[in-house]
Every structure is written in C-alpha cells, then in structure tokens.
Predict the structure.
Amino acid sequence: MQEVVRTPMVPVRAEIVKIVPETPDTKTFYFRVQGGLVEAPKPGQFTEVYVPGVGEAPVSICGLEDGILVQTVRSVGALTDYLFKMREGDLVGIRGPYGKGWPIEKLAGKDVLIVAGGIGLAPLRGVILEVERNRGKYGKLTILYGARTPSLLLYRYEFDRYREIPNTEFLLTVDHPDETWRYHVGVVTELIPMARIDVERTIALVCGPEIMMRFTVKALEQIGFKENQIYFSLERRMKCGIGLCGHCQVGPYFVCRHGPVFPYWLIKKYFWVDEI
Amino acid sequence: MIFADQVLFRGSVYSGVEDDLKSLFNVAVSRGYRVIGPKLVNSVIRLEQLNDFNEIPYGYGDKQAPGYYRVVNNGGRFRHGPDSPKRFLYPPELLLFIIRPDLSVEYPRFEFYKTAFFGIKPCDLAAINVMDGVQGELGDEYYRKVRENLLLIVENCVEPGDTCFCATMGTGPFAFKGFDVAYTRVGSGVVIFQPGSDLGVDILSELSLRPAEDEQVDFLRNLMLDASKKARAEFTLENLPETLEMGLDSEVYRKIAERCFGCANCNMVCPTCFCFDVIDEPELDGSAKRIRIWDGCHSYSYAQVAGGHFRKSLYARYRHWVLHKFVYWIRQFGTFGCVGCGRCITWCPAGIDLRQVVRDVVKEVETRCRR
Ligand SMILES: Cc1cc2nc3c(=O)[nH]c(=O)nc-3n(C[C@H](O)[C@H](O)[C@H](O)COP(=O)(O)OP(=O)(O)OC[C@H]3O[C@@H](n4cnc5c(N)ncnc54)[C@H](O)[C@@H]3O)c2cc1C
Ligand code: SF4
Ligand code: SF4
Ligand code: FES
C-alpha cells in the first residue's frame, strides 16, 4: 500500500501586496501569508522564502504590520534576482518563523545599543520598532548604522521616525560619502566612541557582515562590554532552516535552530576561528 | 570498546550450519520481508534487493586499503562495500513534494516494505543507531516509515578489513545491541546464531539449531578478541573530543588539504552523513518538484553564500568533517558521528586515511601540551 510522506519544509502561499524600493539593489516586500503565520514572529527571526521553480532563501523578518509580513531583500543571486522581478499580486511561498530572535525580554530596563552594517539593519528594525512601541520599558536607545555609500542605507524614509523616539541617539556613517552627506565618514566601529554609552547598563545587538561584527565586538570589549552583554546575528548558508540539512553549522551549533541570534559568550570559542 | 562477555550470554548462543543461514533468509522472505543484502554487481559488493539466498556472494573476498577496493574470488570473506543501509532509509534523492504555480502542494506517495537487512555488518547496525539519534523527534517521515518495519540480521566480522576501525569506535566487530539476529560464520561450515530482540527470538525459533557447546563459545570468544585487535585505529576515544578541539588550528588539516580533492566521496559513502540540499526540478506545466539530495561538507558550495564563502579553503572543510564526526556530533545527538566502517578511507581517490588524520592531530596536541 502506498503511503503519503509529508515534510515540514513545505511553504505556505503568500501574496506580495506591496514593494518598497530601498536602495539600487534592495527592496522591502510586504507579504500576506495565507492563513497567517503559525506563530507571531519575534524580531531577529527569519522565514524561508520560496520562489516557484527557483528555490528558497532565508530572509530576516523586519516587521509585522497588520498581519502583513515585512521583509527586506537584497538582490545577490538566482533567487533574489528573480524575486526582484516579481510584482504586487505575485505569489511566493513562506515558511517560518524560524530561529531564535533578539533577547527582547533581557532588554527590559536596559539601555539598548544597536550596531548595524548595510543590510544588517533589516533584522534589527523590529527591535527599534519594539522600543518605540513600548518606550517606557527600555532605557536609552542608541543606533549606530553604517553602509558603504549613502544610497545603500536602508529605511531612509523612516530615519526621522527613529530620531523622534524619546531618549534615542542615532548616528550614521558611510565609507564613501556623496556631496550631500552631512554625517560621519568611516567604518561603523568609529561611531562607538562618539556615542554616549553607559556600558554597565547596556546590551549590544550587532548585525552586519562577519568582518564588521568581529571589529565591532573588539571595539565593544575595548570600552568594557562583557561577553554576556553582546548579541549578534550570524549568517550561514541555509537549506532547511530547521536543523535538518546540516549546512549552517558553526561549531556544534546549527545557526538556523540555535541562532541566528547568539549571545557572544555562547560561541566565543568558534567566533574567532577562521572558516570554522 | 565492546567486550566479548557483553556479547556472549552463554544461554542464548546457538550453533548451526550454513544451510541454516539459507533457512533464516527464507523465513524472512516467508514473513513478507523485502530482503536487502550483499550482492556482486560490476565487481563491487553492493547492497541490493535479493530474491534468492544464493545471490549472496559467499566465497568471494575483498581487498580494501586507502583508495583501493578489489573483489577477489578466493574463498575468503567480503566486507561492506560502498553502500550502507542509509541508501534505503534516507535515499540519495527523495521527492519532498510537488508545488504548483498557485503554490498548492501535493505530497508524494511511496510504497513502504517490511525490510530485512541480511548480513549487514555491526558497523552498519551501529550506523542505524546513529541515524536514529540524528532523526530524533524531528525525524524524517520517510526514514521513520522504513525504520519502523526493519528486521536486522547482522553478520559479525571474524576478519575485519584493512580500513576498519570499529573496535576503536566501540561499534564492532561484533554486534552488541540493537539487532534482531546476529550470526557468525566461524569456519568449517559452522555458523553461530544469537537473537538480539523479541523479533529475533521469534524468527530464530523457526530454525532448527542446537545450543552452542562451551568449547564453541570459547572459540567464538577468541575469534572476537582477535578480530577486535585488528579493527583498531592508533587513537582511543578517551578525551578525544576535548583533544581534537584543542587542535582547531592543527597543521595536519592543512597538510591533508594538499592531497584532498574536495570530491565529497567520503561524505557520500559514509553511513551516517545526513546533510542535504533541496533542488527544484521545473515541470512543463509550471509546477516544480522539490527534491532532497545528499550533499557533503567537502563540496565547494557547501558553505558558500551569495557574495561570500564560510569555508572556502579545503583544510577548513576537511577539518569540519573531522570535528563534526568526532566532536560536534556528540553534543548534537549524543553519539560519535563515526562508526569506524572505513568506507571514507577505502573510497577516497586520494587514499586519505581518516585514522591517521585523527591520530596525527591528537599527537600534535599532546606534544604541544607536554612542552
Ligand atoms: C538567518 C539569515 C537571515 C537573512 N536575512 C536576509 C535579509 O533579511 N535580507 C537579505 O537580502 N538577505 C538575507 N539573508 C541572506 C540571503 O539568504 C541570501 O542572500 C540568499 O539566500 C541568496 O540567495 P540567491 O538564491 O539569490 O543566491 P545564490 O547565490 O543563487 O544562492 C543559492 C542558494 O544558496 C543559499 N544561500 C546563498 N547565500 C546565502 C546566504 N547568504 N545565507 C543563507 N543561504 C544562502 C540559499 O539556499 C540560496 O537559495 C539572510 C541569511 C540568513 C542565513
Ligand atoms: S567517517 Fe568514515 S569511517 Fe566513520 S562512519 Fe563515516 S565513512 Fe565510516
Ligand atoms: S577526503 Fe578523499 S573522499 Fe573526502 S573529499 Fe577529500 S579526496 Fe574526496
Ligand atoms: S539550515 Fe539546515 S540545518 Fe540549519
């Protein structure tokens, strides 16, 4: 007798309801997932986005607005290029949310320091919005954000909104400025000594290219941050998103299941080993 | 380490002859099992579905060495070839579902058979236990459906091959737990049988055997001791994970990378490697098949991402393989990821010997610590 075999790796139908261009190679997609997500996503979690006939890619969740999933995608390869050509009304598949997000509960009563590079702001956007929504719960919010050029900064249309969150310091930097650039020039770690940070009462959340995260962790340690005050979100090749396919391992950890957000102390040993 | 006395409960060791093996095979068939066992295909001993006991190439032997495999018709004993039970429990290619342009999904249907593995080796039995640990609660449904209806008939190894190190890994050369029936061809046509489960007792009781004589049990014990001495690597499991982890930066990996091709043959023949990729196979009507295929950590693209690469260097990919098998696996699934079957050694085109790699890293770390 034949039996049906099911897999947890099956996408749910989702409609693209809005597309917002961010940078020359990045767009924010608003997905209406049929039947809604299985659970409310937490900032820092991700989904697997499926493009029919092309494949799947892990993408961070940047927000949930009236039940609509918000995700920002940079076009870098086969699948993301294809997604870029899609329009409002087109269908994709979504499964998730997966992984551990940022330690929102641990941030209560603390100052929150966000250090983001390039598209690394996407998974952190949810934290900024959470602080805005429940302003009284958290201490000072510091956002340090850098990109290669001004045109590569995400969410520029929201920057004023971030600045208006009470008790917030928002510093920007780029490597290569244009004529209109009024802020800092240099790598994002240079912003750390410029910000007013009360190390004792701060939790740092870091996301960006791996090399940027390494320099950031060093810079934070230099001003007194301990291993248990730093969290970062790691990127690895992913195929399943749920700890089955093996691809995303960092040491004994599956980034998809045990991360992608890790406390620094948990993986310190592997973090500094090249190509581990 | 498996000790002979753990394996030999005198009361349940039975003696028979080679014809009884045939009867055992036929009992499995009569009970509706699809029997999978060793078969000679294109000069290689594969695991295939068998219709007849005589398809098992008893009387053939093999020669295995790093990067070397030959079957010889010399009246000797053959060991496991490149296939392991993984091929049947966790197929190299599996259709996950078909997805249509409107994103509706159709799950596949498969025929599931009661499956008897006949004459697999203790290391492959152990590999099934290791896979059980990996599949755990999240377990693959296909795996579970095959696994539920297995009959495991294990042939103990009197003459381990030259690439075997099951005795070091504590998985052989004699079956210790998790089997239904184990048998040992002790020579002169005599076969010793042992039941290992209720099902095993039930199946064996259809045969007509005798309790083994005390001398036979003692003889078997000596065979076990001799075989265990052969199937060894030059390292022990004592503190192995800790030691290897102290050698993350070992030069040994870089040396090996000069020889390794990154072909991932080792991953493909390994009875426990579980990594997979999922690919889309588009159909003419616009739907797509999502297919799971084996992937291996040695292949170039394994840790490659758009615009970057987390393990571009071969040494790092080789190191990951060693660390996963002997370090991470324990933390992830509670067992070593290696059962010492030696397939990755035999089937490596560069003849790289995993036993030497582990030994050399351990040595390097120990020397460093002494200094
Ligand atoms: C936890 C997590 C969150 C992410 N969040 C975002 C995000 O918010 N926005 C965004 O633009 N990108 C994000 N990425 C990166 C994004 O997944 C890759 O850019 C994307 O997979 C590239 O797919 P592709 O098919 O276009 O590229 P190709 O190079 O054609 O990739 C082929 C396949 O390899 C795998 N792959 C390739 N690159 C990556 C990668 N960087 N990470 C994981 N798997 C990869 C995927 O399975 C992909 O389908 C995230 C990655 C991870 C691991
Ligand atoms: S790593 Fe090599 S010796 Fe160990 S189980 Fe896999 S193939 Fe066999
Ligand atoms: S160790 Fe051997 S089998 Fe494995 S990838 Fe390298 S060359 Fe191929
Ligand atoms: S993405 Fe498959 S195990 Fe993490």
About this structure: The pocket of iron/sulfur cluster (ligand 2) is lined by residues B 269-272, 325, 338-344, 354 (CB under 6 Å). Chain B has two domains: 4-230, 240-370. Residues 4-230 of chain B form one domain.
